[in-house]
Amino acid sequence: MTPERWSKVKEVFFAARDARGQSRAAILDSACGSDEALRSEVEQLLAAESEPSLRSPTADSLFDTPVQLKPGEKVAHYRIESLLGEGGMGVVYRAWDEQLERPVAIKTVRSVSKDRESRERLWREARSLAKISHPNVCQVFGAEDDGQTLFLILELLQGETLADCLKGGALPVTGAIAIISEILGALDALHSLGIVHRDLKPSNVFLTSHGVKLLDFGLARYTRNPFSAPGETALTATDHTAPGTILGTPYYMSPEQAVGGLAGPGSDIFAAGCILYEMLSGERAFSGDSVVDILYQVIHVQPQPLEPAEISIFNEVIRRALMKRPEDRYKSAADMLREVSKAAAPKNVCDRSTDGPVTRLIVLPFRILRKDEETEFLAYSLPDAISCSLSGVDKLTVRSTLAALRFEGQAPDPKRIAAEADVDAILAGTLLRAAGQLRLSWQLMEAPSGTLISSDVLDVSINDLFQVQDGLAQQIVTSLMLPLTARERRVLRHDVPGSAKAYEYYLRANQIAVHRTLENMRLARDLYLQCVAEDANYAPAWARLGRVHRFLEKFGGESDENIRLADEEFRTAFRLNPDLTLAHNLYTPIECDQGSAAQAMVRLLKRARYRRHDPELFAGLVQACRYCGELQASLAAHNRARRLDPNVVTSAEHTYFLLGEYPKTLAFYDNKAGYYLDAAALAALGRNEEALERLRHRKAEGAPTGIVGAAVESLRCYLEGDIEGCLMAVPALESPDRVDPESLFYIARHLARINLGERAIATLGKVIDSGFLCAPSLGNDPWLASLRSDPGFGGLSEKAEQRRIEVHAAFLQAGGEDVLRES
Amino acid sequence: MAEPPGEVSVLLAEMRSGRKDAFARALPLIYNELRRLAARYMRDERRAHTLQPTALVHEAYLRLAGQDRADWRNRAQFIAIAGQLMRRILVDHARKHYAAKRVGSLVTLKEGLNDGRPESVASEEILAVDQALESLSRLDPRQVRIIELRYFCGLSTEETAEAIGISERSVAREWALAKAWLRTQLAERTRP
Predict the structure, then answer these.
(1) Shortest CB distance from B121 goes to which of A2, A55, A147?
(2) A2 DSSP 8-state letter
(3) What's the CA angle centered on A739, arms A766 and A599, to 5 degrees?
């Protein structure tokens, strides 16, 4: 072509382009005449114009390689540390979260979809995955996007995949059942949120020291699938843990996926059936030499029944799970879980051979035979430390030190103590100090008979005092002939500080903290601080220090630092001794305050499986379950705690308050030295004068500060008719501090009561976000009545309901129904 | 390292006054700045968004010439040069990438065309456009400039009109033709 010819082409093109239909043809006719080549050239151009538009290259194509991150590079505020591996969906890195200062895993997820809409859908799904909080689901912390690649920020897991584990052949039955139970619990939780895993297989099941974690759920549909319609079912690509695996070998694929149909919850059940079969037999349920062979098996063949008797009991479960039609399989993962447990039940009974009689013990305050300032503090604190040590023994229920205080200073009367404290054994002792030596005489006796079980006299130097605790605890265990597990033995040994000085600080602080006034707690704090300065490895002191800081935050309101310190101190305690009963029980309120009630609930429920006689643990569950909206479970935990120890202190009155049972709230509360709840219950019953009287009285005595103080003050002002004061007392919602959501809930009630609907709803939103789910008060609390017609209320109750569903799934998964079954 | 601001402005003014070597001296300065900026973008901000060439060109202009009182003639001239340079950068890169893929393992048709990246244009396509422009440059150099600015630089009609010094309407018409023509050329090249 020449430039002249090109000019001609352009001229005709522009002329024809502006015309349409008939007139376009006419223009072409007259302009081209007999020049067919020119006409065809222009017609081609005109036709090409209506094709989809050209896309310009982006400058990103200058950097062509798939996203490869190097150590030190950053994705948002995550600094890459190392490559962990490559999976079907992308590359996984270990990284450091610079904001929250914790290790995370970052997974690159390639979207193979071209259009913006499906990328946005991928994003939406990533966000919804980030909302899942379940102990057996790898937590998605968040997602980042650079326009082409989605980065999922995940919980960093330590352990191995089930696929790795299965390389060694079949698993022991108990192990297989434990794993499948957790898988099914996680699936149940995912399915209840409408999420289907779609690609469940052993390499997506991670075994950690905290149990099973499911990976790669829900996103599987975005990976390449050579077999089925795009965007629907899925196969992930290579399995990097098993070199040589054919790309996307469909060992765990359901028949409906194999024929290119839709994956549903039933597909995950099918995969779970395959996994159970493989764990028990060491063989894959479906296998073959080629992809086609395997798919044929999946679609048409039933696997060989399992042979030896001990695993053949699961044949029926597997048969149901592996039905070819999804509608013939278990309706839900929960159904399958139930059947698995049933099939495994006879063995479980044997496993519980550790069940046996439990001894209930009380350690009385020691009597000081010759009073002096140097030893007086030991009267209470030494028995307390011993109680604390012994509380790690499951076969022993040790009464709280508070309960023991009632019997202080008298010669023990076994009959009375047995009746009042509900115990089978009593430890009593006397202390005599003489010239730097301390003489402890102790007796362990049966109650109510008073028969002596054993007794001894210990002479120790004041500087070796901490050996008394250790030695005495051991002797009691031996005398009572309690069988100890290895874990319990370890716990017992763990409980002794490294120096006499540290021990003295610890005991003195404990002594002071018995009566919980702000002044005492501040003193105790200083002593605990000195204790941990002396011995930084003494876990009980860290836990008690954390408790004191939490108290100061909640009632003293003196420093925003307190709650953070408390949390750190408990973490230190757990790091030093993950099994410390004291820490597990004292941590619960802090965890709840910090917005992690669900985590607290799961932690306690799991612990309750082997700590079935610990009243404090169940007292903690009263609070955690209430925050999670499990009110019946909360009351069941209260009953359980009271059966274990009639004098144990729980927070059941708050549960009754949520249920709207205000008279019961009062009955539970009246014998406590409280600040707020009794007045709130009286006000709810319309007994405003009585409520006001109590609040005025307390104000005169010195009101608490902190969030509880705010609740007290705003209620008092409301009852005085001082609406402005009521509002003024309410802390700013924007305040960045984490506050106890339950106290904030009470404040939101006041706001609703004075018709500040919008503010009340915003506050309740924060309450729910902080893990206090408000059930069922959104529906039935009379003080929230004004909100129910508010336009924002629908969204609020929807949010609460959504959280409830998630948390309830976690409750079931942690065995909540089993643990709290009324017996 | 960035050249001291002002030098490019001086060179652009010299170009207008007819000094032939000014263009040759401006070219490497602008070229290096574009590459440097692209590399920096990819290091620091790749997470935020897809990097558009037009952003590079604008930033390079601001850095190299924009500090002197913005002279619209300088700007138009600069952008016209940058258009050619962006084409060269992108094509060089596509060529390298294409070669690397040819010696690599088997690539499926879909992957090959797509580069596995939903948002990026395949290197094959960039190379095909470049070759088509090569033959067009003998027939219609102005059309080539328009394609460089619109396709390789991602400039708008308005910016393109300003850079070349013709009306927006002309740019729109010429671009419509250019697109249609490119498509017919690309279709021919991918035909077996």
Answers:
(1) A55
(2) -
(3) 80
What is the ipTM score, two decimals?
A: 0.76
Query: What are the catalytic residues of A?
Result: 199
Residue-wise pLDDT tens digits, A599-628: 999 999 988 877 778 888 899 999 999 999
The pLDDT tens digits for A440-464 are 888 888 888 877 787 888 888 877 7
- Structure tokens, A366: 């020691």
A46 contacts chain B (CB < 8 A): yes
Residue of A nearest to B139 (CA): A3
Nearest Cα residue in chain B from A146: B47
Q: Are A389 and A470 in contact (CB under 8 A)?
A: yes
Pair A626, A742 in one domain: yes
Of A327, A351, A375, which residue constitutes the final position of a domain?
Answer: A351
To the nearest whole Å, the CA of B113 is away from the closest chain A CA by 13
- Percentage of the residues of chain B whose pLDDT score is greater than 90: 0
Scan for tokens 């729910």, then name that residue.
A768
Per-residue pLDDT at A106 exceeds 60: yes
A303 and A399 in a single domain? The answer is no
By CA distance, what is A40's nearest residue in B?
B184
Q: Are residues A572 and A682 in the same domain?
A: no
Contacts of A56 in chain B (CB under 8 A): 53, 121, 150-152, 154
Q: What is the pLDDT of residue A321?
A: 94
Domain stop point among A351, A383, A412: A351
CA-based nearest distance A30→chain B, Å: 20
Q: Which helix (H) or strand (E) holds A368?
A: strand A367-368
How many CB atoms sit inside 10 A of residue A1's CB?
Answer: 13
Q: Which residues of A touch B179 (CB under 8 A)?
A: 48-49, 53-54
> What's the CATH code of the domain at A93?
3.30.200.20
pLDDT of residue A438: 82
Number of structural domains found in chain A = 6
Domain that holds residue A538: 497-578
At A424, which CATH number? 3.40.50.10070
The CATH number for A322's domain is: 1.10.510.10
Gap between the Cα atoms of A215 and A212, Å rounded: 10
Cα A666 to Cα A661: distance, rounded to the nearest angstrom = 9
Residue A144 at interface with chain B, using a CB cutoff of 8 Å: yes
Q: Mean pLDDT across chain A, nearest whole number?
A: 80
Kindly list the residues from chain B whose CB atom is less than 8 angstroms away from the CB atom of residue A61: 90, 93-94, 97, 115, 117, 120-121, 123, 126
Residue A344 and residue A195 in one domain: yes
> Could you tell me if residue A820 is inside a domain?
no
Q: Is the pLDDT of residue A154 over 70?
A: yes
Q: B152–A56: do the CB atoms touch at under 8 Å?
A: yes
Tell me if A62 is assigned to some domain: no
Q: Is residue A55 part of a domain?
A: no
pLDDT at A618: 92
In this prediction, residue A763 carries a pLDDT of: 92
Q: Is A76 in contact with B47 (CB distance < 8 Å)?
A: yes
Structural contact between residues A740 and A701, judged by C-beta atoms closer than 8 angstroms: no
Which chain B residue has the Cα nearest residue A64?
A: B97
Residue range A370-387, pLDDT digits in tens: 777 777 778 888 888 888
The answer as to whether A492 is a domain residue is: no
Q: What is the rounded distance in angstroms from the CA atom of residue A444 to the CA atom of residue A452?
A: 6
Q: Give dist(CA A157, CA A454) in Å, integer.
A: 49
CATH classification of the domain holding A544? 1.25.40.10
Contacts with B166 (C-beta within 8 Å, 6 or more apart), sequence order = B142
Q: Are residues A320 and A273 in the same domain?
A: yes
Residues A262 and A365 in one domain: no
Say which residue, A2 or A658, is predicted with more confidence.
Answer: A658
CB contact under 8 A, A64 and B120: yes
Same domain, A541 and A683: no
Whether residues A170 and A222 fall in one domain: yes
Percent of chain A at pLDDT exceeding 70: 84
When pLDDT is averaged across residues A408-431 and rounded to a whole number, the result is 83
- For residue B84, count other CB atoms closer than 10 A to its CB: 18
The residue with greater pLDDT, A691 or B97, is A691
Q: What is the largest CA-CA distance in chain B?
A: 54
